[in-house]
Write a structure and sequence with these properties.
The chain is an alpha/beta fold and 341 residues long. The chain folds into two domains: 242 residues, 3-Layer(aba) Sandwich (QueA-like); 79 residues, Beta Barrel (Thrombin, subunit H). Helix content is 18%, strand content 28%.
């Protein structure tokens, strides 16, 4: 399976640079995974495609303001840091730019010394382990000094940090938002619950590995980075009960999908628990739990596009993407949505 099989042409101007004022006013392309039939509607119409007895699975991770700008203490050279994952207490795995100036032993000052860090070692992919030192609570300091880690294809400054969070975000830990959830408002979720649709919340802290480009020619040679997930007893029970009663499990976003597929038995039984997953879903994968997916439009040749293709078929998905381009849909993190059922 060649990575070029998942390429499509995307005009630059279709990459959404800003979130819409009204989260639920985005457009929705509905794709029938069995027939390839496509319909165009608005996101609020999602309720027309849900049924009583279905279960919506949300990823309640919260994005941390993980981008920090500092200076080397010896030369005052500017350093940019992106927090990827907490290893232990105040030691974080980070992405540092420029990497050449970030050798082990380098000390970096942030906010005029409000926060300092020392690079301990270089690890996989050139990432750096950094030991932070500070007075007070790290999360509060990060909230003061950090910026939201928007993807590189978004060049506009984000005016409101909360627009890169879902309305149901609870647990800090992500370096990127589970963007399919950005379309939901509290009112829309309440309307869905009132319909008799269950809502199960799981947690997967999104790392940048999910969005890294596939650099190998053969898809099967690509290695996914691991991400931490957690499934509560309540969430597992709701999902298992839905399946036992013949309802559909519809994931909001590829991260929710990867979480439940990682924790399920071959027969689809879901177990509560936590751990790390590097599951890579591409065409040929047999879904154990998931029946439908709400997702955004993903980058060409990305692992996320491969996951959607595993659900509905590569040809159907690429045909839907080409139609979305013709219809001038907005793409990527702040873009429009797609429902695959």
């Amino acid at each position: 399976m060649n990575v070029k099989d998942f390429y499509y042409e995307l005009p630059q101007e279709l990459i959404a640079q800003d979130p819409l004022n009204d989260r639920a006013s985005s457009r929705l392309l509905v794709l029938n995974k069995e027939t390839g039939e496509r319909k165009h509607t608005g996101f609020r119409s999602i309720v027309e495609y849900l049924r009583p007895g279905d279960c919506l699975v949300l990823n309640n991770t919260r994005v941390i303001p993980a981008r920090l700008f500092g200076e080397k203490e010896d030369t005052q050279a500017r350093i940019e840091l992106l927090l990827l994952k907490r290893r232990e207490n105040d030691i974080w795995e980070t992405l540092v730019k420029p990497g050449k100036k970030a050798k082990p032993g380098t000390r970096i000052s942030f906010g005029g010394g409000f926060l300092t860090g020392e690079i301990l070692e270089v690890v996989e992919d050139g990432n750096r382990l950094i030991q932070f030192r500070y007075d007070g609570i790290f999360e509060e300091i990060l909230d003061q000094l950090g910026q939201m880690p928007l993807p590189p294809y978004i060049t506009h400054q984000l005016q409101d940090k909360n627009r890169y969070q879902t309305v149901y975000a609870k647990y800090d830990g992500s370096a990127a938002a589970p963007t399919a959830g950005l379309h939901f408002t509290p009112e829309l979720l309440e309307e869905i619950r009132q319909m008799g649709v269950s809502v199960a919340e799981v947690t997967l802290h999104v790392g940048l590995g999910t969005f890294r480009p596939v650099k190998v020619e053969n898809v099967l040679d690509h290695h996914m980075h691991s991400e931490f997930y957690q499934i509560s007893e309540e969430a597992a029970e709701v999902i298992n009960r839905t399946r036992a009663a013949g309802g559909r499990v519809i994931c909001v976003g590829t991260t929710s999908c990867r979480t439940i597929e990682s924790a399920a038995e071959e027969d689809g039984t879901l177990h509560p628990g936590s751990g790390w997953t590097d599951i890579f879903i591409y065409p040929g994968y047999r879904f154990k739990v998931l029946d439908g997916l709400i997702t955004n439009f993903h980058l060409p040749e990305s692992t996320l596009l491969m996951l959607v293709s595993a659900l509905a078929g590569r040809e159907r998905v690429l045909a839907a993407y080409e139609e979305a381009v013709r219809e001038r849909y907005r793409f990527f993190s702040f873009g429009d949505a797609m429902l695959v059922v």
